[in-house]
Amino acid sequence: SAESIFTKWGEESGWTIYADRSRNSCLIERVDPAENVVQMGLTEIKAIGYLGIFTKANIDLKEGEDTVIVAFDDAVYTGTATRKTKHLPDGYKGGYILTDDPEFVDLVQRKYEMIVFPGKEYAIVINLDGSLKAIDAARECFTDLNGG
Predict the structure, then answer these.
(1) What's phi and psi for 130, nearest 5 deg?
(2) What is the pTM of this model?
(3) Distances (CA, A) of 35 to 1, 14, 30, 135, 145
(4) Which residue, 67, 100, 121, 132, has fewest beta-carbon neighbours within 10 Å?
């Protein structure tokens, strides 16, 4: 949101951890070897997390919301991606999905890649190297902002 001001809190395993003191929240961000930008954090409703994926690939997301499939080996999740059009670097497009499933976060931490199917004819492979330690660092950031 326009009120959010993220400042760098730290780095862990190739991920940057950002703090938003106005919301007492943190997020992690990484640019993977294929130049895909991955962001993960919590919404204002702390029980709901988000996963944002932004790429230079031609993913052709529809305006508003579109169906997306995320796979970790044999675990497959179907959800709705909300297209983001503002505040993206030139050439990037993408969106985010929301989840309140702790198993999803566990898979992001334990797996080294996830496959995202934003359309029917192609997929994007997202490298998750270092996500285990980065999510733990984001939890530390959150605890730091929220007084222990």
Answers:
(1) 80, 0
(2) 0.85
(3) 24, 13, 9, 20, 30
(4) 121
